[in-house]
TrEMBL record:
This is Uncharacterized protein.
Length: 135
């Protein structure tokens, strides 16, 4: 009664990677887009370059219309075995020392934080003694 859904590995889908036979993986589903290559508004190169990998991000980033999504139903051929798709690693930038914009070393900054108030205090005391002794 109900037809069984075909499950493909990434390797099997990757074999369909040319203009005569082109399959894509979007959202864990496998689509045969061969007949749509010529009509695709973004050109056939876009679809051909997305073969052999999970094209979900590429598809979503473009922001396809609801009519484009409806057309996909006609191209559906099965599901992909998610265990055959390599996991994406999140980019983590290498650890780097804190960048000090004005190139002043921390030691000089701490020294100035200590000396500047001391100099101000010394000037204030000097003015106080100077004004007292001249009066």
């Amino acid at each position: 009664m109900g037809s069984e859904t075909k499950v493909y590995t990434l390797a099997q889908v990757s074999e369909h990677n040319n203009s005569k036979d082109c399959w894509l993986i979007i959202g864990g589903k496998v689509f045969d887009v061969t007949k749509f290559l010529e009509d695709h508004p973004g050109g056939d190169e876009v679809l051909l370059s997305a073969t052999g990998k999970d094209a979900t991000d590429d598809f979503e980033d473009v922001g396809h219309s609801s009519s484009a999504r409806a057309m996909m139903d006609e191209m559906y051929v099965g599901e992909v075995d998610s265990s055959t798709i390599p996991t994406k690693t999140k980019y983590a930038p290498p650890k780097q020392p804190q960048y000090n914009q004005d190139k002043t070393s921390e030691f000089v900054v701490k020294l100035l934080q200590f000396l500047v108030p001391l100099v101000i205090l010394g000037v204030a005391v000097g003015i106080r003694f100077y004004t007292k002794s001249s009066a």
